[in-house]
Write a structure and sequence with these properties.
heterodimer; A: two-stranded antiparallel ribbon; B: alpha/beta; ABC transporter involved in vitamin B12 uptake, BtuC; Rossmann fold; 2 domains; 6-stranded mixed β-sheet; 4-stranded antiparallel β-sheet; 12 strands; 55% helix; 11% strand
Chain lengths: 345, 587
């Protein structure tokens, strides 16, 4: 391997690594706020990418039906709850967020599908379709079990992953898709070429991370999420609804997931089940950070990207084996450095 | 009794006659249910009973299958030899994985198994020696007593014999000393550790058993199919195994077979139905399974078995207690010997000093009360002595041995036994079995002898001892009731019986009289007096002044982490510092 190949692989690794960083951050966020280990994160990556690909092909993406179906179910659940509480405000809010808004989004998607609008519009529409599935999922699958053990939530999480992956197969079929790059530019830095898309990935990741930082440290809702993560009961006593915090965390995670998919779709072909593996690589990064530390998780995720890139050069058949076995030394190290008496749940 | 046995009789009849009478298709399905049931059985033990979980069981099945496939085809070994090699490889892998993850929080094991499940799947598919994604063909049939089990009809008998034997052995295990330890994993680790159970080891045992059952199923699978490829051992199948355990009922062993049956049949039906319904081909059954799991965990978290079992006439199950020969007792120190000596103990939590420069002694045949208002540091003090939280500085000696820094299990072994302020019982288990956990260190039977019920002599003596302690504290009428059904006061008494079952020479009791009625308090005081008359030392943390004053020999009073008074009960009652601490001075 000469320097040029090494640099090329590093560039490749950093591009994927940047995506894993975003996913790792979302996973840490969701776990901290809701104790859910968010396995379906990967499905949002695939849904984001494949929805955009459908628009790009002038087709109405199947995720629109998923959005409408999910929103209708939430509307039903909320309407029943609102009726029982005789709470008209709750009913109105549900009608707005789970009735009107999804209908508008679906209408816009239907109208736009055949028109092949500009890429930024397609991206905005794709996000508008996929991101609401985060809170919908939280409301339907996780909120009723908010007090269950981490273990039960994990099993639910895996079940949701399975259902969404199956739906992904149904909506998008078994063929993979690629989307057009944000920019066809090719920049030359000394010896190596860097594609414009890679720069987009680096830039968007940096901006997103900064935005998250500002959100958590400056905004009221961000602080509410941090408070819920630190102490659920305490946050509740301060008037923060944990279901609100959970819904918000899922919305952010869905947004990050879908956007990651859109970023990476011009670089790798995305199949309905690709997201799962991408999401799990984010996980390996998150586990390096003990599912608690944002910076360490980000560092771990970058490392995963780099290792994967170099592994694909030396032993491409064993790329996945190497990446997922990486978790073993990490767990060993955590096990040896943690002195923690398991509390009874 | 007959009605209760009816399902078992029906199953046995099906196992015996099914392979002869059913059409080929159903014989195959039935064989798969047996194979999957074996894996699900391990998961019920791990998840439903042990409170841990694994999505990587598919990979363990694969290890067993590939071990025998490779060794029988390439090296020509006998399937019976490769069975044990496969089990050994799986066991070693599970030990490694368990040792790394089981000390961490509960979710690291399942996450580790997900990663390991994926990794092994790709490894199977990419190793040329294992035939890559095409796999290995030409695996020989198993022969038994010269009989070659080539057809699925014949091999089914072996599958079901092994599955039912595994069910029997697991049931035996759960009704034993080791089984009680496994059942304490979910929600009782701290308590069990204080009773001398090695929690880390018990967790690994449960994980190991689940892995070995999966490996066994893999061996059977390889010799039933006679070829293997990576697909059946993917993470996806690992998830399906877990679903079987959850659907059937994660806390009942029979639920494993029920779950395996339901998921296998449903899978078959949906694979047929959904592609027609949706007009496309693909694994759409996973949508249904996913949604079904979410609904099940929301509305029937205990699975289908309890719903089914409710329809069967269930006699009250009572564990027989015999007049077995009493267990040997440890040599007790003579009355007046110093048992416990705490010197200048300090406990800091960051900047907070919870206990500061505390010293106290407890002698055999003496009751010492540790008093103090809320937040005085009594419970922290208690934890220092029992080993739950080691002191920052200072020493603790027990029977002239230094014990600060030892874990609760070692301290329990030396003859110190405790109760908990917030009652820690296994609510579903009977009073008798809860108390028997206290006697954990007085038995020695291992997992293997327990599974085969070769330890019945020792078990009878443990249960007899437990029953004796239950009688001794006056809960004899509740012997077979679920511990969770007792009123709180009696649950506290039960905790004392459990502590006594360990045959201690020092008893630590954390607010035993809280929640008791007047007469119950009198009975408790009577019991404690009797115990200390027999030479036991008792350290009592208590709020109830009336209860303490008439009972104990000496009192130590704490406030803000420090000792403010020590002496005889009536001296303490007159002590101005104590009065101020309890009644408040003028602000």
């Amino acid at each position: 391997m000469d320097l040029q190949i090494a640099l090329l692989l590093a560039q490749d690794g950093l591009t994927n690594g940047a995506i894993y960083v975003l996913l790792a951050l979302a996973l840490v966020l969701v776990f901290a706020v809701t104790r859910v280990i968010f396995i379906p994160q990967g499905e949002f990556v695939a849904f984001g990418a494949l929805t955009l690909a459908a628009f790009d092909n002038g087709k109405l993406p199947g995720t629109v039906w998923l959005l409408l179906g999910g929103a209708a179910l939430v509307l039903l659940v909320e309407a029943v709850a609102a009726r029982r509480e005789r709470n008209n405000q709750r009913l109105a809010r549900a009608l707005l967020f789970y009735g009107l808004l999804p209908a508008v989004v679906a209408g816009a998607a239907w109208w736009a599908a055949a028109l092949k609008l500009a890429l930024p519009v397609q991206i905005a529409l794709s996000l508008a379709i996929v991101v609401p599935m985060g809170p919908i999922l939280y409301r339907l699958a996780f909120q009723p079990l908010a007090e269950a053990s981490v273990l039960v939530l994990l099993i639910v999480s895996v079940a949701v992953h399975l259902a969404l992956a199956g739906l992904g197969l149904f909506f998008f079929g078994a063929e993979g898709s690629r989307t057009p790059a944000f920019s066809e530019a090719m920049l030359k830095f000394g010896e190596i070429n860097v594609s414009g898309q890679s720069l987009w990935v680096y830039g968007s990741s940096a901006v997103l991370i900064l935005a998250l930082y500002v959100f958590f440290s400056r905004s009221l809702y961000g602080k509410a999420l941090v408070a819920t993560a630190v102490n659920r009961t305490g946050a509740r006593l301060m008037g923060i609804r944990t279901s609100m915090a959970g819904g918000l965390a899922f919305t952010l995670a869905a947004a990050i997931g879908a956007f990651s998919g859109i970023l990476i779709a011009p670089i790798t072909t995305i199949f309905y089940d690709t997201g799962f593996i991408i999401g799990l690589k984010g996980f390996v990064g998150a586990i390096v950070g003990g599912l608690a530390s944002y910076p360490v998780a980000a560092g771990g995720a970058l490392l995963v990207g780099l290792i994967e890139s170099y592994a694909s050069f030396w032993a491409s058949a064993f790329k996945e084996v190497i990446v997922f076995t990486l978790i073993i030394p990490v767990l060993l190290w955590r096990s040896l450095t943690t002195h923690h008496i398991e509390e009874d749940e | 009794m007959m009605a209760r046995r009816l399902p078992l009789v029906a199953l046995l009849a099906l196992v015996a006659l099914g392979p002869r009478l059913l059409p080929e298709f159903y014989v195959t399905l039935f064989n798969y249910i047996g194979l999957y049931g074996l894996v699900a059985l391990g998961l019920v033990l791990l998840t439903g009973i042990g409170g841990m979980t694994s999505f990587g069981q598919g990979a363990f099945v694969g290890l067993g299958a590939y071990a025998t496939a490779y060794l029988t085809t390439v090296h020509g070994l006998s399937p019976w030899a490769t069975l044990f090699i496969g089990l050994a490889v799986t066991g070693a892998t599970a030990l490694l994985l368990g040792a790394m993850t089981l000390r961490l929080s509960g979710h690291y094991l399942p996450l580790g198994t997900i990663a390991w499940g994926i990794s092994l799947y790709y490894l199977f598919g990419n190793l040329d020696a294992l035939g890559g994604h095409t796999g290995i063909t030409g695996i020989p049939a198993v022969s038994l007593f010269g009989l070659s089990l080539e057809s699925g009809r014949d091999f089914g008998y072996l599958i079901w014999a092994i599955t039912l034997a595994a069910l029997w052995a697991t049931q035996n295990l759960l009704a034993s000393r080791q089984g009680r330890a496994i059942r304490a994993l979910k929600g009782g680790s701290l308590m069990a550790e204080s009773m001398g159970v090695d929690i880390a080891r018990t967790k690994i045992i449960a994980f190991l058993i689940a892995a070995l059952l999966a490996s066994l199923s893999g061996w059977l699978y390889a010799h039933l199919q006679r070829f293997v490829n990576p697909t059946p051992f993917s993470l996806h199948h690992g998830i399906e195994y877990l679903f079987m355990a959850v659907v059937g009922g994660a806390a009942s062993l029979w639920g494993a077979l029920l779950g395996a049956g339901v998921i296998t049949l449903l899978n078959e039906w949906l694979k047929d139905l959904l592609p027609k319904l949706l007009g496309a081909s693909g694994n759409f059954e996973m949508i249904v399974f996913g949604v079904m799991m979410v609904l099940l965990l929301q509305y029937a978290p205990n699975g289908l078995w309890p719903l089914l079992a409710r329809r069967l006439p269930a006699p009250r199950r009572e564990i027989a207690v015999s007049d077995a020969q009493p267990l040997t007792q440890r040599d007790k120190p003579a009355s007046g010997t110093t048992l416990l000596e705490v010197k200048a103990a300090v406990k800091r939590f960051g900047g907070l000093v919870a206990v500061n420069d505390m010293s106290l002694t407890v002698k055999a045949g003496e009751i010492l009360a540790l008093l103090g208002p809320n937040g005085a540091g009594k419970s922290t003090m208690f934890n220092l002595v029992s080993g739950v939280a080691p002191p920052t500085s200072g020493t603790v000696h027990f029977l002239d041995r230094r014990i600060d820094g030892l874990d609760p299990r070692r301290i329990a072994k030396l003859g110190m036994s405790r109760s908990f302020q917030h009652v820690r019982l296994l609510r579903e288990m009977s009073v008798l079995e809860n108390v028997a956990i206290g006697a954990h260190l007085r038995g020695a039977a291992g997992v293997l002898s327990s599974s085969l019920h070769l330890e019945r002599g020792e078990e009878a003596r443990l249960l007899a001892e437990a029953a004796r302690q239950v009688q001794r504290v006056g809960l004899g009428e509740h012997l077979h009731d679920a511990a969770g059904s007792l009123p709180l006061g009696k649950q506290r008494i039960l905790e004392i019986a459990r502590a006594l079952c360990a045959d201690p020479c020092l008893l630590l009791l954390d607010e035993p009289a809280a929640g008791l009625r007047y007469l119950e308090k009198q009975a408790l005081a009577e019991l404690l007096r009797k115990l200390c008359g027999e030479g036991l030392g008792i350290l009592l943390v208590e709020h109830d002044m009336d209860f303490v004053m008439g009972l104990v020999h000496r009192v130590v009073v704490m406030d803000f982490g420090e000792k403010i008074a020590e002496g005889l009960p009536d001296e303490i009652q007159r002590n101005p510092a104590v009065r101020e601490a309890y009644l408040g001075g003028v602000e």
